[in-house]
Amino acid sequence: MSDSPNDGAFASLPLAPQLLANLDSLGYHAMTPIQAASLPPVLAGRDVIAQARTGSGKTAAFGLGLLSRLEVSRFQVQALVLCPTRELADQVAGEIRRLARTLPNVKVLTLCGGAPFGPQLASLAHGAHVVVGTPGRIEEHLRKGSLDLAALDVLVLDEADRMLDMGFQPSLEAIVGATPASRQTLLFSATFSDEIRDIAQGLMREPAEVAVAESHDESTIRQRVYRVADEAERFAALRGLLLKHRPRSSVVFCNTRREAQELADALCEAGFSALALHGDLEQRDRDRILVLFANHSVSILVATDVAARGLDIAALDAVFNYQIARDLEVHVHRVGRTGRAGGSGIACTLVSAGEAYRLERLNEFLGEALEEAPLPPRSVLAQEPFLPEMATLQLDGGKKQKVRPGDILGALTGEGGIEGAQVGKIKVLERSAYVAVRREVAKAALAQLGTGKLKGRSFRARRVSR
Asked: In this prediction, what percent of the chain has a pLDDT beyond 70?
């Protein structure tokens, strides 16, 4: 894996003189770290899987790569860039046009859901060199026979993790099936999750892995121990720590099912958004809770260790140990759930006087004494509790009714007027579908789904409560 933070000059790359002259006129002199690390293997024709966030300069990295391979005289679709949302596709297409402006007659076409189909058919009939689009609409054009990818040289998956979050994996697989096996594949993702690695394994040939080194202080887990006098102070301490750190998503670990449920109820009464996860729940309720938490429609999951086993929770900001786990290895596993994927995380453990012996045993087990810290001042308890940034809507149609993630996204962002950036995870099940939207547009999104049509049919939509 490359970790080079080198930011050399574009002139050191084997780029066409027209592209270099254009980069200079655009003010692109020194490469960003992701460009310096990914462009050499991209230009060498290798498949590349790159960890890169929005704003890192990744569009220029794959844009220059695909433009370098373009044969302008061959009027066929030679490059396809897939993006999770219409807004991102428009940005990417605009950037590729800017990079290509010194090349003669390069045609870049955007094909996104939420836009009328007719004009896209007319544009495709005139031909294009580069297509940028969303998976649902690209798959639709392939099904209708209006898009031909037989001559494709480069396939780019931009923000691949977000496309998986939004439920586009079946569409991605259908699109890849319509491309030549000889193509070059470039995958850009903010995280290297197991899902992303599985996708890469199925799509790519010996890919070069590129990740720009994160600074170490961002990837560490800050562990702190907080002393509490008694059980009454334990709950106030948890409230104070939640209000001080205000994590986007956190798990509070309890040692018993009853305590998990009672604590979740108490947090809700105190104005927080919390759900309990324990062994007394039916599978249907467990599934609903996990969808809400993964969607960021609930901020706090209060869980027992058994119920949390096997949970794949990415980007967890904080873990709170309401007590030290009875099994010390389990305690270490709890703490390891935060600070993943290059992010930072905090782990706060509450210890009463009666549990001092457990803390001693934990310190011995770890081989070092955990740092103790004072509880936040009581004044913090006067702050307003925070609410989750998203709300989840449920449709009573799913795979059986041929509903696809792209249909839901198109219904919201087309006539609905909601921006793609305001739509979160989409999960389509057999007979229902969940979509997360930002809280401030939840009412409008619900009205749009409830009154609009998907696949020419109306589906009942409702907001999923805690």
From this structure: 91
